[in-house]
Structure formats: structure tokens, C-alpha cells
Write a structure and sequence with these properties.
373 residues; four-stranded antiparallel β-sheet; alpha+beta; elongated; Adenine-n6-DNA-methyltransferase TaqI, Chain A, domain 2; 2 domains; five-stranded mixed β-sheet
Length: 373
């Protein structure tokens, strides 16, 4: 067992306010532990009370740890300071000769760190975490040389993931350009509705007590992003639930869409073995029309129609029947087949890069887990 050190012996709180109003755009922290532009309404807000976060300093939100089961924590990498809510806890490392900021941020990214933090949450409604409890948490601190080695390994994987993301973005632009050229600029076509090209079903209403960390993955709304589904992000159910939810089985190449909340957000199911949760639409289509359907659903015209149909209530939502009735421009079979031949290799390359990123992310998780051993 490694010799674990108390975090509070290596950090101190920083409480520098934005008195001169040099920074005017507040930042929040997302679930991936990165700073992001705040979504809070700041009209009439006194930004001079906001806290400054400078390079190599950290900020965290301790108010909702029990609810979110993780600590929103981020490190400022840029030389330009940012501002965060006065309610955030901002701190910096005091013993820089012993502890690297990048190594500490890696420790904060560990799933085990968040699980441990959850046990420290207090009993209030929001499930907040006491600042002293954070300071009392412990971590192993190897030599600086070893810390740099660990960080270098992690950042190598991160750079590869980012490179793949850039390549995926370029490939998607290529696919969209082909789609616009063939179907927006005018082809032999006829009017149709989405029901003429695909079947749309809603997922199964799984019970909350069925969720577990291993088993058969279930696609929920929050799993629909980046045009694919990552198995390691999904909650699971036991194998016996497949029989109960057999009408919500997703197959390779099926398209899934959020039917509530962020309606219209779509992804392609990358492989077999998934179930689909309620309020997730499942689109089944012939192989030849799959890329056409995906790009059609992702087009501005159809997305606007989806938002228009689904935006009539406080909680935006749309039904499978509503989607099936949306009008589209459907090309003749010859054009559809030719488009499939052109764009299928692009989608295959995207899928390959996405699967590589999944493996790289798994390697990152293994590296983070090894830090505690």
C-alpha cells in the first residue's frame, strides 16, 4: 500500500476577487472536469464578487456532490485568468516541489476519487460536501519525476484522442458536403415522409432499481452524443431484462434520437448488445439508406422541423409518430444507391476512429486506476 498524504497539507485556498472587472465572462465546470462558459443568467450580477482562477489553480463546486456523485473540479491551464462563482472553492498547490498540478488533476479525474468524495457528502438536500472533508482526503505522492512520467503517458493518449476527434470532424464535413451536393442542390427526387423510409420506435421504461454498473448496456438520452454510443458510459441491466425489453433491442447501424430534453440529438449504434431506454427513439432502416437517413435527420431543415413539432410544451418532447410524419425529400433508388457507395467508406472511417478513441479512453481509465496502487 502506498503512503497516502493528506491533500490539505499540499494546497491552500485562494480568494482573489474580480474587483477590477478585467474578466467579464464567468465559467462553470462540466461533468468531464473542464471549464466551460457558464449558463447562468448574469444580467444585473455583480461580477466583481466572482473569484479569479489563474494558471495552475483549481476550482471546484462542492454543493452538489451527493446529487451528481462526483466533484465538478477543473484546473486552469491557460495563462489568462478566468472567473467562477463566489460559491466555488478555489485553491492552489503550496508545495510545488513535491506535487505537480497536472498530476493532481489526474487524481481528481479518477472514478475512485469521486466515489470516495460521495461518502463525505453531508445530509442536506443538495448533498453538499464540506470543504474540510476535501482537505482531509488523501492521495499518493510519488517523486516529481514519476509524476511527470505518469502525466506524460496520460497526455499522449489525450493528444491521440484529440487528433482522432479532429479527423472525425473532417470526415463528417466530407459526408455532409456530399449530402448537400446530391440532395440539397437538386436531384431526381420525390416528396415523402420519414415513415416511408424507416420505422421509429420508443425505448423501454426500465425501472430505476434495475440499474447496475455491469451487464447489458442501455442507451439513455445522455449517452447520445458525438454521433456514436460509448459502451463504457452506459448504465446497465442484468441479462434477464433482455427478454422483458426485447422490443427495444438496438442493432449495429440503428440510429437513436433523444425524444425529450435535447430533442433531435442523434447517434449511430456502433455494435450489437444494446437496449434502448424510454424517450429514446430507435430508427431502423435498410443499409443502403442508413447514411442518407442519418444526414437527413442531422440536417438543419429536419432539425428545425423536429424542434418546431416538439417545442410546444414546457418540457420539449416529440413522439415517434410525430417524427414519422415529418416530410422529407426522398431520392430515387438509383441516386440513393450511388450516394451509399460514395459515403459508406467515410462513415466506416468515422466508426473506426470512434472505436479507437473508446479504446484510448479505456487505457486512460486504467492509467488513472493504477495511480492508487
Amino acid at each position: 500500500m502506498k503512503d497516502y498524504k493528506r491533500l490539505g497539507d499540499y494546497i491552500r485556498e485562494v480568494n482573489v476577487r474580480n474587483r477590477e472587472l478585467k474578466v467579464t465572462k464567468p465559467m462553470g465546470i462540466n461533468i468531464d472536469k473542464h471549464f466551460m462558459p457558464s449558463v447562468a443568467n448574469i444580467i444585473g450580477t455583480d461580477l466583481s464578487a466572482y473569484k479569479l482562477v489563474c494558471k495552475n489553480q483549481f476550482a471546484c463546486n462542492l454543493m452538489h456532490v451527493g446529487r451528481d456523485e462526483k466533484i465538478p473540479m477543473a484546473m486552469q491551464n491557460d495563462a489568462n485568468p478566468i472567473i467562477v462563482s463566489p460559491a466555488y472553492f478555489v485553491f492552489e498547490i503550496t508545495k510545488t516541489e513535491d506535487l505537480s498540478p497536472e498530476y493532481l488533476m489526474m487524481w481528481f479525474r479518477r472514478a475512485e476519487f469521486d466515489r470516495n468524495a460521495w461518502f463525505y457528502t453531508d445530509a442536506d438536500v443538495r448533498g453538499g460536501m464540506n470543504k474540510d472533508a476535501l482537505l482531509d482526503m488523501r492521495l499518493p505522492i510519488p517523486t516529481l519525476a514519476r509524476q511527470y512520467e505518469i502525466v506524460s503517458e496520460y497526455e499522449t493518449l489525450t493528444r491521440r484522442i484529440r487528433l482522432n476527434e479532429q479527423m472525425i470532424a473532417k470526415l463528417e464535413e466530407t459526408a455532409q458536403a456530399l449530402y448537400r451536393k446530391m440532395f440539397v442542390d437538386g436531384v431526381d427526387e420525390h416528396n415523402a415522409i420519414l415513415k416511408d423510409i424507416c420505422e421509429v420506435k420508443s425505448g423501454f421504461a426500465f425501472k430505476s432499481e434495475w440499474w447496475q454498473t455491469t451487464g447489458v448496456p442501455v442507451i439513455k438520452i445522455n449517452n447520445i452524443h458525438d454521433n456514436t454510443i460509448y459502451r463504457n458510459e452506459c448504465d446497465c441491466v442484468s441479462e434477464d431484462k433482455v427478454r422483458i425489453a426485447n422490443k427495444s433491442i438496438a442493432h449495429t447501424g440503428d440510429i437513436v434520437m433523444a425524444l425529450t430534453g435535447n430533442i433531435g440529438r442523434i447517434s449511430i449504434v456502433p455494435d450489437e448488445g444494446y437496449l434502448v431506454n424510454q424517450r429514446v427513439g430507435l430508427f431502423r432502416v435498410d443499409d443502403i439508406a442508413r447514411e442518407f437517413l442519418y444526414l437527413t435527420l442531422n440536417s438543419d431543415e429536419i432539425q428545425n422541423k423536429i424542434q418546431s413539432v416538439g417545442g410546444g410544451s414546457v418540457q420539449t418532447n416529440i413522439s415517434p409518430a410525430d417524427i414519422e410524419s415529418i416530410s422529407i425529400i426522398l431520392p430515387i433508388d438509383k441516386v440513393m444507391s450511388g450516394f451509399h457507395e460514395q459515403v459508406s467508406p467515410v462513415f466506416s472511417a468515422i466508426s473506426w476512429k470512434q472505436k479507437e478513441n473508446l479504446k484510448l479512453t479505456e487505457l486512460q481509465s486504467l492509467l488513472l486506476a493504477r495511480m492508487g496502487k
